[in-house]
Amino acid sequence: MSREFANRFPHQFSGGQRQRVGIARALIMNPKLIIADESISALDVSIQAQIVNLMKDIQKETGLSYLFIAHDLAMVKYISDRIGVLHFGHLLETGTTEEIFNNPIHPYTKSLLSAVPHPNPILERKREVYHYNYRDSGFDYEMEQEVKLSPTHSVWLEPKFQAKYLPNPL
């Protein structure tokens, strides 16, 4: 941004400009980690892409890590190397982006991914949505145990559900 922006008040910036200012404020401290909680959700799609690409460029240049909290799974897939799926404050599944998107195990993860619209209209019409309702599921997140599916992919399930949902754990 040019120097003329230095005398502006926050309300005089666009959403994208405010995001850039926020990123700059965070970076000035030379952090190792930035927690970005829904940092782009209120932005126009074209501005979202600019901000995310800026974040990725900064990450490559500095080795910075992000904890990117979002509901936009397409953006999560684009920006993330690893994903953790949370529901009601409980970690349900972790893995690489490829593991989570290609082999989701927890029913909640499956329901999230099945709800993502497909850009191809033919495939979109054939898309099956996996429904998950915690209250009706019988799950008790307090009783779940971590099961390692691979060195990088874990799922948390109660022992009574493990046979139903797990392939072959390590």
From TrEMBL:
It is a peripheral membrane protein. Signal peptide: none annotated. Residues 6-39 form the ABC transporter domain. InterPro entries: ABC_transp_ATP-bind (IPR050319), ABC_transporter-like_ATP-bd (IPR003439), Oligopep_ABC_C (IPR013563), P-loop_NTPase (IPR027417). GO terms for molecular function: ATP binding; ATP hydrolysis activity. It comes from the Bacteria. GO terms for cellular component: plasma membrane. Its main location: membrane. Keywords: ATP-binding, Nucleotide-binding, Transport. It holds the Pfam family ABC_tran. One of its GO terms (biological process) is peptide transport. Residues 93-124 form the Oligopeptide/dipeptide ABC transporter C-terminal domain. It is found in: Cell membrane. Belongs to the ABC transporter superfamily. This is Oligopeptide/dipeptide transporter, C-terminal domain protein. It comes from Eremococcus coleocola ACS-139-V-Col8.
